[in-house]
């Protein structure tokens, strides 16, 4: 479709080649995206561990208050 785009004057529109820095910025964006994904996954794992520990603490409190083993 780029060959069919024309300016208002009727001249064919030529697409310019991307600047080399665009490729570099794209690579940086990909790496930052991967880092953000890893941080999000680590955050979820930490929350899972915290919630699991809190659940065990609740069981221990209930066990101590009831005076019997669960």
Describe this structure in words.
With 70 residues, this protein is mainly alpha-helical. It has a domain at 32-69. Helix content is 67%, strand content 0%. The radius of gyration is 29 Å and the shape is rod-shaped. The model has no long low-confidence stretch (mean pLDDT 83).
Tell the overall outline: rod-shaped
Could you name the ranges where pLDDT drops below 50 across 5 or more consecutive residues?
none
Strand content: under 5%
Q: Give a count of the beta strands, DSSP E runs of length 2 or more.
A: 0
**SSE order, as H and E?**
H
Q: Helicity, in percent?
A: 55-70%
Coarse structural class:
mainly alpha
Distance between the termini: 70 Å
What's the mean pLDDT score?
83
Q: What is the gyration radius calculated from CA atoms?
A: 29 Å
Count of helical segments?
1
Largest beta-sheet characterization: none
Provide a short characterization of the protein structure.
The protein has 70 residues and is mainly α. Helix content is 67%, strand content 0%. The longest helix has 47 residues, at 20-66.
Topology:
Elements: H1 20-66
Please tag this protein with its features.
70 residues; mainly alpha
């Amino acid at each position: 479709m780029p060959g069919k785009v024309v300016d208002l004057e009727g001249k064919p529109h030529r697409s310019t080649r991307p600047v080399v820095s665009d490729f570099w910025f794209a690579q940086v964006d990909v790496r930052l995206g991967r880092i953000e994904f890893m941080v999000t996954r680590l955050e979820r794992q930490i929350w899972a561990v915290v919630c699991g520990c809190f659940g065990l603490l609740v069981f221990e409190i209930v066990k101590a208050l009831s005076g019997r083993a669960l």
